[in-house]
Write a structure and sequence with these properties.
Distance between the termini: 15 Å
Number of domains: 2
CATH architecture of the largest domain: Alpha Horseshoe
Shape: flat
Radius of gyration: 18 Å
CATH topology of the largest domain: Serine Threonine Protein Phosphatase 5, Tetratricopeptide repeat
């Protein structure tokens, strides 16, 4: 992603002011937000694209004009546990919660799957972790915590791929993470770090 592409996604010409960028983003965010266009996958993808473009421009504009404290974010539902691009563990946590809509057997399966996920992620067996969480999500598709875990696994796999310099594949899984749990503010913050890290890598390559 570059500044020209970001301006284009927001419907602006290059060099637009921060106020123009902010106004364009707010209009598009209201139009494509998942709460407004529920069930519309194209609208969800568009919302992610314009939000990423806005945040990319926000990080490239001068600090004194960008007003980062005014940056809008999708509403948060959960926190997440993640590892930074440099390999450091973040302070966020995930706890298994009891879901009244699940049977005792499903709740037990959920708890045991969480423990397996933790072990797989610690040992960096990401493909197996993805297979496990996707299987769990198919069975418990309405459990918000399982959805959160699925997004976290995608994000951590994407972050690992960045360190392995598989940038294109990393982008795919980072986007999948946002598409899976688009309301998770903590997840958005982590994925933004990952995309900024990708941009830093690209700059050092040229």
């Amino acid at each position: 992603m570059n500044s020209i592409e970001c301006y284009r996604l927001l419907g602006l010409s290059g060099g637009a002011s921060f106020e123009d960028v902010k106004a364009a983003y707010r209009g598009l965010a209201r139009k494509y937000h998942p709460d407004v266009s529920s069930g519309d996958q194209q609208a969800k993808d568009k919302f992610i694209e314009v939000t990423m473009a806005y945040k990319w421009l926000l990080n490239t504009l001068p600090r004194e004009t960008s007003q980062r404290h005014d940056e809008p974010m999708p509403p948060n539902r959960h926190t997440s546990s993640s590892t930074s691009s440099s390999g450091k563990q973040s302070k966020q946590t995930v706890q298994v919660q009891v879901n009244p809509s699940l049977s005792p057997l499903e709740q037990q399966l959920k708890a045991s799957s969480y423990q397996q996920l933790q072990q797989l992620l610690r040992s960096q067996k990401f493909p197996r972790a993805i297979a496990l969480v996707e299987s769990l999500a198919q069975r418990m598709s309405r459990d918000p915590e399982v959805i959160q875990w699925q997004a976290i696994v995608y994000q951590q796999w994407g972050r690992f791929l960045i360190r392995e310099h598989q940038i294109d594949k990393a982008r795919v899984y980072l986007r999948k993470a946002l598409q899976t749990d688009p309301h998770n503010r903590s997840l958005w913050a982590e994925v933004e770090k990952d995309f900024r890290y990708i941009e830093q890598i690209k700059k050092t390559e040229f």
